[in-house]
Structures are given as C-alpha cells and as structure tokens.
Amino acid sequence: MKINITEQQKRQYQEEGYLILESVIPGHLLDLLRGECQTFIDQVNAEMDRRNTDVMGINHRHERYFAANCFRQQPKLRDFLFSDLMAEVCRATLGETAYLFWEQYVVKGAEKGMKFSWHQDSGYVGYPDHKPYLTCWCALDDMTPGNGTVYLLPFSQAGIRSWVQHIREEGSNDLVGYFGQDSGIPAIVPAGSIVAFTSINFHSSGVNSSPHPRRVYLAQYSAEPILSRDGSRLWGNAEPLLYKGESAVGQPVPTV
Questions:
Q1: CA torsion sign, 196 to 200 to 202 to 207?
Q2: How far is CA 77 from CA 13, 30, 82, 208, 219, in A?
Q3: Band of the pLDDT at 253, cuts 50, 70, 90?
Q4: What does the buried/exposed string (b/e) look like for 4-16 if buried means 16 or more CB atoms within 10 Å of the residue's CB?
Q5: Which pLDDT does position 1 carry in this prediction?
Q6: What is residue 254's predicted lDDT score, i.e. its pLDDT?
Q7: How many CA atoms lie within 13 A of 248 on its CB side?
Q8: Cβ distance 192 to 23 under 8 Å?
Q9: Domain extents for the chain?
Q10: pTM value?
C-alpha cells in the first residue's frame, strides 16, 4: 500500500518530533494485529499467575499490559512489521536505512486502564549514546481522551530535544522524564492510524474509562543497530527493513 506522507509532515517530524497518519493501516493488517492481541495479554496474565502477583514490572493486571517481541512467537506479525507501509514510514522519518528494534502490544483495560507517565522511549533504553529511534504507535481502536490515547509534547513546547535521565515512579514502576505542567496534544484518531514519533519525544497517556479495552501495537525502528551500554550485545532486535533506500528484508541480522 502506498501512502502520501507530505513534505509538511516530514518537516513536522524533524522539527517537532512527531507526525500523525490517519487510517493508513490496511484492513487485513489491522485484522491481523487485532486478532493476535489477546493471546499475548493472556500470556502476561499466565505469567502473573505463575508468580502469584498482580504487578509485574509496568504490567498491572486488568489495568495495563505490555507484551513484547510477540513476532518471535507469531511470525504472521512480520507481515505488518516488514510491510511496504512501514518501510515508507521509516523512509519519511529515519531515512534510507532502518532496522526493526522492538515491538509490543500496549493494552489498557476497560473502565480502569491506568495512565502512563510522561517519558521518552529512549528513557527505557537507559543511556544516551544511541541515535533517536522511531516509535510507530498503531491504533487498533478509535482513540480518544476517554479511552486513554497518547499525548505528545512537541519539541517546541518541551524546550528540549535530547535524552534526559528518568526517575522510577513508585507504585506504577513507570520511568518519568517530564515534570512540567504542559498537558500536551492528544492524538484523537480512528483505528488504523499511526502516530509516529521520535524516541526523545515526551509522551504520556491517560486512563481508559471506556467500557472497552484500548489496544495499541507499538512498532519501533532504528537507523542503526542499538547496542547495550557496554557495546557487547544488541539491546533489542536489529532485523533489517531498509538499506540505502531499498528493501533489506531477509538480510542477515548484524553481529556485535
């Protein structure tokens, strides 16, 4: 599927740290992402049962879930992650070379889905020595302030466009990097939309008070392999998507 990412949107990404593409995920890929979601949430619940807990990291039973690297268990998800659509989004934001870095489902439970505190995704990498990467926040449901959509803080409002040290919030276990009063810009978008932002863009999300779960699929790409702090291993994934503007799908993963 070809989409039209305008020069104005590309400039906004570079100047403000984000862009929004409404209703761009084709129906068959949206169905795929929705269809696999519950399986991985069930796995998180099962692991909580095994540990006899309702809180596991930033997962909180029935309130908020993060299920990562699902494509390793379900190869069908690669149809989306390595699609022409995602290659086009990467070209418009990262440039001519892109690797799949990370992916996960992010789900807020119905009626009591927890907020997620202000942070940069790079804050969870935990050190500043990596190029900012791309987060594609893919809406599997219609997104509104009432069901806990993402809020974005443009660079011009944040007053900063670099990595900052984050502080862990007691209770939620969130890492928090912004403590100002700006409420940000809510992404009010229909299902099938992609909110694309840099890993140094501050963002947060509200509570889900709606009667339905709020489901997001997060696909993240980097312009180069991201390594651990000591450089001895890959931090996450580094599967090629693009190299010098051309498809690199199926090429070997870089070795450290």
A1: positive
A2: 26, 11, 9, 26, 11
A3: confident
A4: ebeeebeeebeeb
A5: 65
A6: 82
A7: 20
A8: yes
A9: 7-247
A10: 0.96
- Per-residue pLDDT reduced to its tens digit, 52-66: 999 999 999 999 999
Once rounded to an integer, what is the mean pLDDT over residues 12-16?
Answer: 98
Of 57, 40, 235, the C-alpha closest to 133 is 235
Structure tokens at 118: 């202000």
Tokens of 229: 């702090």
- Measured CA distances, 60 to 110, 115, 120, 172 (Å): 13, 11, 20, 8
Query: What does residue 188 show for φ and ψ, rounded to 5 degrees?
Result: -100, 95
**Residue 234 confidence (pLDDT) above 80:** yes
Specify whether the CB–CB gap between 154 and 18 falls below 8 A: yes
pLDDT value of residue 116: 95
Mean pLDDT, the chain, integer = 96
Q: What is the pLDDT of residue 2?
A: 74
CA distance 97 to 18: 19
23 Cβ contact list (under 8 Å, min separation 6): 189, 190, 191, 192, 193
- Superfamily of domain 7-247, CATH level 4: q2cbj1_9rhob like domain (2.60.120.620)
Nearest to 218, CA basis, from 91, 111, 110, 116:
116
